[in-house]
Amino acid sequence: AIKDILAESHEMSEDGKQIKVKLRDNVYFHDGTKLTSEDVKFTYDTLATRPLGIALLINYDHIEIIDDLNFIIHMIAPFGPILNSLCSRVGYISSKAYWEKVGGFDGYNAHPIGTGPYKFVSALSGDSIVFERNENYFRGKPAFKKVTLKIVPDVNTAVVAVETGDADASMQIPIDSLIDLNNPDVVWDVASDQAGGLFGFNFLPDKWVAKDLNFRKAVQYAINKDDINEGVFYGKTVTIDIYGAPTYSARPPAGSYHTYTYDPAKAREFLKASNYDGREFRVVTWAGHSVEKVCQVIQANLQEVGINMKVVAVDTPTYWDILRRTGDHDGYMHPSGASTWDMDGLNYYLYGMYSMKEIEFPHGKELNDYILAARVEPDINKRVEYYIKMCNILNDEVVQISTHMDLNTVLYRKGLKGVKADYMQPVYRFYDWSY
Length: 435
Hints:
The protein is of the alpha+beta class. The protein is built from 15 helices and 13 strands.
């Protein structure tokens, strides 16, 4: 938020430990009070000790206020993706005066204010949220006087609402409900999300998959990612061979790391050299999500080379209970993304998602050392070098298999202008929309 919209300029010190920021001089909160450095300091100081701030504001120390529009962010040590973090969810700047007036988190959440183009009016849990136009928005008055977000759990109902004109647009409609839509009054758009599919193995020391690299290699070469793209996403997504969206900062460029391609003959060779005895390969995943369908494609791929994979689709709380507590799985698959849109997200998907500390990754100490080194390295090129080394280990040892990017969709009335599917759901850029 600071970098993209609210700041006029910013400057990073060479050692990566100070960021000088100058705010715009024409930004006001929805209650009419002016955005100042004090609000920024208050926001980050408040969040820094809470779970979200701890996870995203790595090495944050304090903010030094110079005047109402200028301040310096001080870091205990560099954090490579700090600018990304400041533009993530923790970058939604709160009004200090309003916060104190309404009594903190509960009061602010009950009736939040911000600096954006639309002001919160009301919310009915599980039904709708109503916004009204911010007449004093610093980028100019938005087109619509009122915006209502209606929560519609049934996909068919949501599609029909747009087709009949009862709704102007609907977000996150599954691609298979759009691909054959034939109505001249509606248009739809699709974009790759910043989160992607992550297929992993159970590396608890007593698990057979942890001890059998040849088996993991067989799985790696047996997965046909083109089948995933065509069979689940109708050819509308992109496939990947390392963690992270192609737009992530510090992501190694194609050709700079060890990789692999779909090769069922190689898969059979590795399977023959493995200790696999035909047992069930249990892969747990999220029920009802696109990753369940992806797992079904992978299941068919593995069956073709002789691997008996079972898809165990469960609700999300049960899924995390299995990964974090019981360990009752051989493999897993879920969508993976990072709030910082940076390769540092690997830290979470290697270690943070497990509460079972006894997991033992191949070359685990090297992976950990590279993660920590990349975090405190301000030079983006040096950070990329660390991630190249990490990706080589992850692919050579088949610790994880990244498969695809998820899709975001929007269905809308033909006359509605400025609409496009966003690369990060659930972001709604109504300021750009108009008739």
